[in-house]
Structures are given as structure tokens and as C-alpha cells.
Model the fold of this input.
Amino acid sequence: MADAEPKLANGAGRIVFQTDPSRYRHWQLAVDGEVSTLTLDVDEKGGLFEGYELKLNSYDLGVDIELADALMRLRFEHPAVRAIVLRSGKPRVFCAGANIRMLAGATHAHKVNFCKFTNETRNAIEDASACSGLRTLCVISGTAAGGGYELALAADYIILADDGSSTVSLPELPLLAVLPGTGGLTRVIDKRKVRRDRADVFCTTEEGIKGKRAVEWRLVDEVVPNSKLDAAVAERLRTLAEGSNRPQDAKGIALKPLDRQVSPTGIDYWLVSVELAAPQRLATVTLRGPETPPPDSVAAMVEEGSDFWPLRLARELDDAILDLRFNAIDTAAIVFKSIGDPEAVLAYDAFLDAHADHWLAREIRLLWKRLLKRIDLTSRTLVTLVEPGSCFAGTLAELVLAADRSYMLIGGDGRDNRPAATLALAAANFGHYPMVNGITRLASRFLDDAASLTAARERTGEMLDAEAAETAGLVTFALDDIDWDDEIRVFLEERASFSPDALTGMEANLRFGGPETMESKIFARLTAWQNWIFQRPNAVGAEGALRRYGTGQKPVFDTKRV
Amino acid sequence: MADAEPKLANGAGRIVFQTDPSRYRHWQLAVDGEVSTLTLDVDEKGGLFEGYELKLNSYDLGVDIELADALMRLRFEHPAVRAIVLRSGKPRVFCAGANIRMLAGATHAHKVNFCKFTNETRNAIEDASACSGLRTLCVISGTAAGGGYELALAADYIILADDGSSTVSLPELPLLAVLPGTGGLTRVIDKRKVRRDRADVFCTTEEGIKGKRAVEWRLVDEVVPNSKLDAAVAERLRTLAEGSNRPQDAKGIALKPLDRQVSPTGIDYWLVSVELAAPQRLATVTLRGPETPPPDSVAAMVEEGSDFWPLRLARELDDAILDLRFNAIDTAAIVFKSIGDPEAVLAYDAFLDAHADHWLAREIRLLWKRLLKRIDLTSRTLVTLVEPGSCFAGTLAELVLAADRSYMLIGGDGRDNRPAATLALAAANFGHYPMVNGITRLASRFLDDAASLTAARERTGEMLDAEAAETAGLVTFALDDIDWDDEIRVFLEERASFSPDALTGMEANLRFGGPETMESKIFARLTAWQNWIFQRPNAVGAEGALRRYGTGQKPVFDTKRV
Done:
């Protein structure tokens, strides 16, 4: 097994998710009117870890962090962009997919985390199209192999050059004994609706498919000879942009770098603080509510820009969650707390609702939606403590509903004069933030209990005390001051004593009741199988395909079909 | 890892799935009018493998084979039974679930196969209720732990004795660091709709939940004091039976033992033969079509009993598939062939359609439905060869649609005078046999291609030659005699060269496009996570929980959350 930890390049001590276009090494982001060109031109020497070169536009997490950043910039800094064209800056290759030597050397945990992040980024491309009017065209000149083709699959439209050599392929299985796990198998079947037996042929054909057959099999939308490629791209971009409802002349806001102070025991942002208790394997994430009322106009919101409370909080929390996922891998549980005035949180929710048709309000809602999905998909026990002085209301109440368990204190805590704990729902809880299963956290909670769902809706805006919240089924336990500390301590100690793997599996099952969607299938069916394969000697053993790739030696397989 | 092969008990050379009530060691099947009592009273010394005792009504595959057989008997031999009561023959324990020492000693492959079979058996209990009017009541007196409670979850109604000690629990995670993987997590959430945070508490509480809280949390339907238990059971059975549409006075048919000849190179049944080519890791399964026309009345069908062609074929094929799963684990691919007259097959389909409201015709259809699902869920590459003289028509055409790839020969093969290959669809292909995803194999094939689905329906009953079948999208490739042998040989050699694990993962993704159901979630989300955990040292390593259970030593866990 490959569980010796590879070293981060350039002596870095942790993986950092913050970047900006001036610092990109692998992507170029260009904007021209309603079209943005995202060019992948990977710096071979720019690997995030030591020990491999990113040849042939192959990628690692560092490359994908830049892509995720670029997509955020297009949403917030360039609201007039309606169509993105994804292309390669290298001749004869679009993208060779995830770097194989990186994968071969990565720990199991990193492989899993890496795939989760890249999946979230591809889902964000589709979300931008579905919800934000930001369409993506992918132009493949050269080879799009494995993760390269999976990136294309996230686009609305794929053009393949008809030059006798440009191909799409998913060679993971024949070449590496793993799956096209960044959504590939699911999108081929459930998005592009490739016939299943053709998908079988495609996914076992190392050299891939090109030309007319790629269209006939629905793997790409169109093949175009090189002589007509530019014209076709321009035409398709026009069509894609036409369907967009993005604002035509809006000016974006600048996403300022996040202020953060990293210490051995945590991270402090402006509105979020993360406190690590290593011996207890706990991370406590505290969110601060707004200190001022919402601005009095959308113009004022735009003026506040990335300091606008809901946006700043979301960006900080997103960064904190990613940091915990990758840099605090021993953490058993994340405990969410909040400090602030719940009425003030509701006021911001009301402001965003009142201006729901403004592009910035929409993007902020969508960022929260993606962030909350990311939290649902985080393999840590999620616990929310609703205490005196907290502000779990509206959007922030989603953190109560996302938790595996929530605890709420009855009355004051007798230690200070903070107001008794309250919980409040808002319109935001009833549709703004669907989970990956396509339904809200409240609907997932009350799967067969329409009465509770209706009752909850009727109490929208009310400040619920602990007993009311427990009766309404919104928190797991309401506890009084006498039991509070002990109950929670015992629970968290118990949680830390369980097998981390079994908890991951259990939580992944209990969190996502009800329907499944393409997105949830990617994180359930596809990812869980891939994680299994990432443990199997046929892939990751000393004689397995990932290790033997490029050595000239063939892998040796255990032939048992399990 | 526990991959030393445990020995079958009593010197047995292979796992055998055929049994009958006279040979049961663990279950008693009693029938009294419209009610059947299935009593679990496990023989401690009756383990299928050496090395463990089946204490506390715990089970292994051998116990579950008897349960599956009993359910088949109730369907075919006792058509007047409308309600089953599942109970324990032991005091103070209903069922302790899968035997832990058995699991700890089992190979990874056996764990996976065992869970798949037990899941299929529980799904069959639900199918009997949903489709065959055969309801199940589960009465829990004593502890129902882990797989014991999961068995109860398959019932329509669960009564728990209110005696201060009878409890239900899913202690897999705290006790063994694995999941309640026999549908437990899924059924708690998606069938019983237990609130997800309560499910979290329940699944991490080793001692389980009893009394009123078990009802309040929806874990059971009713708690009843011992003094009123018999009356409550009788009453509930009456209610369950009332809703049934099973025939009131029908006499069943005897399911005769299957004739089979086992040799080192295969198994011969009456209508099915399995030929193993060990060096190529291939199993060729040949099905024989009917030699006589269908009987001229339902009475005559009942008279034929288990010799009636569709029933006999289904029982033999089911046994053959199970044998391959467990006893031919090195097999890479199953190749389906058939011999017979496609018109004759269609005549049987027409006969079953004409008598669809007869209980036996219904049970035969439902058996085929379950059998075809079992084939879909078999982790072998499935290949169907449509050759001259074959009879893939109607119900048998499902084997073409279930295949990962199908090949059809154009024209005769020049070697003999068998009629050219034909393929024919029937009404049976358009609704009788939904997959676990809830839609037919044709609908799964043409997910976004209503035109092809409609065109296929319009050709119902036509004998399609290879080119027509290929054009209609019903086979993967139509090949002529010149290419046939080489193409198929190369394909099968290639398949055998791939990683078996990666194939399992790929096929599990490509086969099940479209919607997901509770059943498909069990085999995808839940099973795939469980299989991952079954590879993780925290569960199966030398210091893992499964190995250390009962030793007095605590397991040692890798604390990384993946």
C-alpha cells in the first residue's frame, strides 16, 4: 500500500486552497465580452507534491484548485460572461487526466480527497450552467484521456477535432485497473446517455474513440475538421450564450484574498475560527453572525463586495472545510458553533430573498448551496451545538440540519447573560439549498413525515427555544444545563473511539435518504466502488497496475471476481 | 487480511443451494391455512464452514439458503398462504445477526457474496409482499441484533415484545467496525423513514433500543406486552392476510429436486448446462428452449408443475448462477448461449401472458424477475452470443439485454444447417422484468432514446436477423462468419486480462443507469461502502475489530478519516 506520505513541493507545510489568476501556473483565464477562455497549459514542474512531473497536461490537486478558483472568479468577478470555452494550450493533447505517478504515490486518504474535490469542481461547472446561466463549451484538439475526458463531460457541449488523431478515451480500467471515478462512468451513462454496451466497449478501449463514431455513440456532440474549428467554436459559443440569463452589463466584485491566521491549534478568519483539539480529534468551527444590518440596496451590497457578510462567511467556511479535509485528516468530528444575533441573520436572508433576481444575490445563494453540499460530503462526524448567544437561523440553520446530530441547550447556561439558545427557520430552508440528492435537508429529514415538514414551514421566522425545536424535530436532543457538558463530552469521546472508516460509510448512507440524482450517484455508487478499488492490491499493491504503470512490467492480478 | 480459505464443514467440496424442508437444520416451515410460521432455531453445530458455532440464532450462508428455499416453497407449494410470521424458536433471542467468527474468518470474496445473497433473500421477502400478496409479520421476543434486526426490516410489520428486555439494535459499527450492510442502513432511512439523526444514534448504540422509544422512532410498528402478544400477532396476521390477493383454495405444485450432474468442467441440468474453461476463466451457460408447445390450459400447466418449461429453466439457471458466484470465483466472464426454436419460446411467453392472473403464471414471472436481477448483480462480465439455432426471444431476450455486450452472427455459420440467428422481443420485455433500478432493461438501454424504445416495441414478435437487431440497437455487434470466432476470442481474452476488481466496479456502474430505488441503493451505495470497509484494516486487519471481537483485546484503529 502506498501510505508513505509524499512531501508537498517547495517545502510547503499544508495544502492551501486560496489562489488568484496572477498566481496560476496551469490555467489561463481570459475574458472577452460575454466569452471567457479557460486554457489548460500545465506547468510540468508545478506539481503540488514532490516526485512527479505533470506531463501531457495531466493534473493533480494543485491544477484543480486553480480551476475551482477560476470558476469562482467567473461567477463573481465577471458576471457578464455567459459562455466559457475550455481548451488546451498544448498541441496534440487536451488533457491526459489525473497524473498517474501522483496517484501511485498518494496515500489512500489523499486519493479519496482528491477525487472528491475534483468531482465537486466538475459539479460546479454543471451547476454554473444549470443555475447561473454560465455555459461551458469544451474543445478537444488532441487526446482527452481519462480525467481529461471527464472534464469535458462536465461541459454543456463537446466539440472534437476531426483530424484523424484527436480522441476521447477512458483508459483507466485497461491501463490502471481503476475506474474513471471523476464522474466518468456516471456521466457517460446518465448524462450523455451512451448505450450501456457501447459504454462498456468505450471504457475498455485504451486507445479511445474518434471521429464520427464518437458522435454516433454520443460521446461528443460534434466533430469538426480543423479548418472549420474556429468558426464552429464561435458559432456554438454564440448559441450557448444566447440562452443565458446573466446580466449583460454588470460589473463584478473583486474576491479579495481571505485573511487568515494559521496556528498549530487552528485557523482564525474574520468570521470563522477553527480550533483543533488534537487529543480529542475534534475541530470546533465557530461562525460569527453579522454585526451590522444588511445594506439598504443592491448597489450597497455590490459596494461591500466580498466583505458582504453572507459572502465573506461562505468563502471563509468553504476554505476552512477544505483545510480540515486535507490538512486535519485525524479529526473525528467537526463541531459547529455560532455567535451572533439570529434576527440579524434572518435579516440578511430576507435581503437576499428580496433581491433574488440580482446576479450577486443569486451567486451568493449558489455558493452557499455548493458549500453546504461540500459539508454534507465531508467525511467527519458533523455536530452542531445550539447554545445561548448562537445564531443558527435561516441559512445558518442548515448547519443544524446538515449535522449527524445536533444538541440544543434548554434555557440559559447560567454562566453569563447571553440570550437563551434559539433556532429559526426561514424561506431559505425550504428550497434554496437542495442537497446532492435533489431535495432539501428538511425534506431529507422528514422523508415520510409531511406533517412535520408543514409544521416547520408554518413556524418560519419564529424564534424556537430548545424544547420547541426538539418537539418540531429540528434538533436531535434538547438538554438542560446539568447534562449538557457531560452528554456532549461522552458523545464526542465515543465518536472518536469508533472506526473512522465505518463512520464514513455509515454517515454516507444515513445523510442521503430519498431520491438519488446523477450527482449523488457519483458520490455514492461510483465513488464508493472506486474507493474499494483504491484499496485493492490489483490496483495499488506492489504488483498492481498503478504501481507498475510505466515500469515495463505487467501488473499481476488476483483473478478472483468479487 | 483473512484470505486463507476456511474449509466447508463435513468435507463438502462445494456450496450447494438446493435443499428442502425435510433437510432444514435451522428453520421450521409450518403452514396452517392462510398463515405460515417460519421459525428460526439455528443448530449451533450446523455451520456451513468449519471453525465457528452458530450461537444465539446467528446465521451463516447455510442458514440463509434454507430461508430462501422456504420462501420459494411458500410461493409455489403453498399458494393459499397469505401471511408469514417470522419468529424465533429460542428464548430471549430473536436473532444475533451474521455470525461474527464466520465473518472474521471468511475471505473477502465470501463476505461480499454472502451479503449479496442475504440481501437478495430479504428483497425477495419484500417482493413477495409487493407483488405476490404474501405479507410478512416479524415478532421479536428477545434481542434482534444486526442482521437479526435487518431480517425484521424486510417484513411488512414488526412487533416487539414489551418485556423490558426485548430490543432491536444495529451494533455493527460500535462492535465490529463494519456497517449494517444487509440493507439495514438503507431500510432504516428509506423504508421506515427513521429521522436521520435518530438513525445515527440508533446505529451507534450497541445495546439497542426497546419499548415505546422503538415505536416513537419508527424502528418497530408496535410494542406489545407478553400477555397480549399472541392475540396481537393473530390480529395483525388477519389484517395482513386480508389485503392479499393470493388464491384462496389453490393447491400448490411440488418443487422437485433439480437433476444435476456436477463434473470438474461444469454442471449439466436438464435444460441448462454450464461448461467451465478454467484456462480462459470462462463459463459458458447454454439454455435449451422448449421441445413441446405450451400446455392447453392452466390446469395442464399446474399438472406439469416444476417440469413446466419456464419454471424448470428458471430454477436451473438460478442454481447455476449461484453456483458460479460461489464455486467458480476465478471465472472472468459468463457467456450465455441458447438452443431452440424462438417461436416456441414466444409461445410460452404468450401462454403466461394469457394466464397472467393465474397464481402460478404470476409466480413464474416473478421468479424470472428475481433471477434476472440476480444475473444483473453477478460480478462477472456477462456476454450473450446470439448464434444460428439459438432462441433468444421474449423472456430469453432479457439475457441479451442484461449482457455487458452481445454479439450476433450474420446469416448462417456455414457449418451446419441451423437456421440463421434471430432475436425477437415480446410483451415480456416491456414491463414484466424491471431491474433493481425500477425500469426495464430496454428502458435502461435507451435511457434518452424514446424513439428506439418505441421502434423496438413496434417490432414485438418479429424475428429480427442480426443486421436488423443491430440497427434496432438491441445487440452490441453483428458480425459475419469470417470475423466471429476471432472477434469473440480476442474480446474474451482481453476481458480475462483486466483487473477483476476494476471490472466489477465498472460493470456495477454501467449496468444501472437511470433512477435508483431502495433496492438499487442497497446494492450500490450501501454495498459498495461495505465492501470498502471489508478491505480496511480497521475492520479486517490483525488488530481490527472483526478479528479482535471476543478476544478481550480492544481493536486498534488507524485514526485517519478518509
About this structure: The first strand of chain A starts at residue 27 and ends at 32.
